[in-house]
Design goal:
133 residues; mainly alpha; globular
Length: 133
């Protein structure tokens, strides 16, 4: 099963309800590939590229604590996706929505790529929610 198919399956499972979305492996995999290089494997803002940045790379485990104990799911989703104009760190953070969409478009077409893109961002954000302190 390709990564895109795994993400699509995870998205469908997460839409089916919480009993099916307990496995965070797809989201953790997305995080390790896309985010850990800057934010660190433990999401503390200490990845190997963090010292090369001209902005402070934030830790991601305190997002709920900074929001009165509520994980700001939609805001985080929009920041990770990056295509809605909601940006983080100025323009340093990649626009993952464009990157994911571009890679999925050949295999799934325009509309299928959007489903895959949202699925990949969704499982990543689900993972971030699961690691909140």
């Amino acid at each position: 099963m390709s990564m895109n198919h795994l993400i699509a399956a995870s998205l469908i499972a997460s839409l089916a309800g919480p009993a099916f979305s307990q496995d965070q492996s797809a989201g953790q995999g997305e995080y390790m590939v896309a985010c850990a290089v800057c934010h660190g494997e433990t999401a503390m803002g200490d990845g190997p590229f963090a010292s090369l940045m001209n902005v402070e790379v934030p830790g991601l485990t305190g997002l709920s604590a900074a929001n009165e104990g509520i994980f700001p799911y939609l805001e985080v989703f929009m920041i990770v996706d990056g295509r809605t104009g909601v940006r983080s760190h100025g323009t340093v953070m990649p626009i993952w929505g464009d990157r994911y969409s571009r890679t999925a478009r050949e295999e799934f077409g325009f509309y299928g790529a959007e489903v895959i893109t949202r699925g990949r961002v969704g499982v990543l954000v689900d993972y971030l929610e699961s690691i909140q302190e």
